[in-house]
Amino acid sequence: MKVKICKLLSDKHLQARELRAEVLRKPLGLPADDPAFNDKESDVHFVALKKDSVVGIVVLVPDYKPGVGKLRQMATAEEVRGEGYGIALGSALEEYAAKNGMTSILLHSRHYAVGFYEKLGYKITSDVFQEVGIDHFVMEKDIITG
Ligand SMILES: CC(C)(COP(=O)(O)OP(=O)(O)OC[C@H]1O[C@@H](n2cnc3c(N)ncnc32)[C@H](O)[C@@H]1OP(=O)(O)O)[C@@H](O)C(=O)NCCC(=O)NCCS
């Protein structure tokens, strides 16, 4: 199991985008190429690899607010769930954010993923709200610096 940072529009990034469309968007009947879903050059794109195949992705928006990174678009391939790739992606993102001066991470969790983020140490900090037609919560975590 490896987690790497990949460049925007590199082979690995394109494979990760396909996986993400499959896992996060297709089940909701959403198009894969929604501009709001597109990644920015300034985002940090993490991919999880199993024998060089992309099996997971997560994106960090650095300094979404001063000192706060935003975790978005977390997804792992169905066939590897429960093997630790989700935790590995979250941990790599936090380590990178801490090294780059961020002191906390926030995210919008789909209601059915809350238990997963709790395992990573996130806590709910909002009331329920709707995003892409699904109940979501803001979750936050302080990360250790230095
Ligand atoms: C949520 C998701 C990224 C977790 O990935 P994963 O590869 O299964 O994660 P891990 O194998 O590292 O699991 C870590 C732990 O979290 C648990 N877990 C995973 N998904 C969970 C969930 N939805 N609710 C509660 N616990 C969950 C696992 O059972 C495991 O527990 P353990 O350590 O006691 O064995 C993956 O299930 C996924 O892509 N889901 C569909 C997309 C999605 O919901 N993304 C989040 C959008 S906000």
Describe this structure in words.
The protein has a domain at 2-103: 3-Layer(aba) Sandwich (Aminopeptidase). By secondary structure, the chain is α+β, with helices and mostly antiparallel strands. The two termini are 26 Å apart. It is built from three helices and eight strands, in the order βαβββαβαβββ. It has helices at residues 11-25, 85-99, 114-119; strands spanning 2-6, 44-50, 53-65, 68-76, 104-110, 123-124, 129-131, 134-142. The mean pLDDT is 93. Strands 1, 2, 3, 4, 5, 6, 7 and 8 form an eight-stranded mixed beta sheet that branches. Bound molecules: coenzyme A.
Helices and strands, with pairings:
Blueprint: E1 2-6, H1 11-25, E2 44-50, E3 53-65, E4 68-76, H2 85-99, E5 104-110, H3 114-119, E6 123-124, E7 129-131, E8 134-142
Parallel strand pairs: 4-5
Antiparallel strand pairs: 1-2, 2-3, 3-4, 5-8, 6-8, 7-8
This protein binds coenzyme A.
Coenzyme A binds next to helix 1, strand 4, helix 2, strand 5 and helix 3.
Number of helices: 3
The residue fraction in helices comes out at: 10-25%
Low-confidence stretches: none
Gross morphology: globular
CATH architecture of the domain at 2-103: 3-Layer(aba) Sandwich
Number of strands: 8
Radius of gyration: 14 Å
Describe the largest sheet.
8 strands, mixed
What is the averaged pLDDT score? 93
Task: Report the end-to-end length measured between terminal Cα atoms.
Answer: 26 Å
Just give the CATH class of the domain at 2-103. Alpha Beta
Q: Indicate the proportion of strand residues.
A: 35-45%
CATH topology (level 3) name of the domain at 2-103? Aminopeptidase
Structural class by sheet pairing and helices = alpha+beta
Within CATH, the superfamily of the domain at 2-103 carries the name: Gcn5-related N-acetyltransferase (GNAT)
Report the bound ligands by name, code or SMILES. coenzyme A
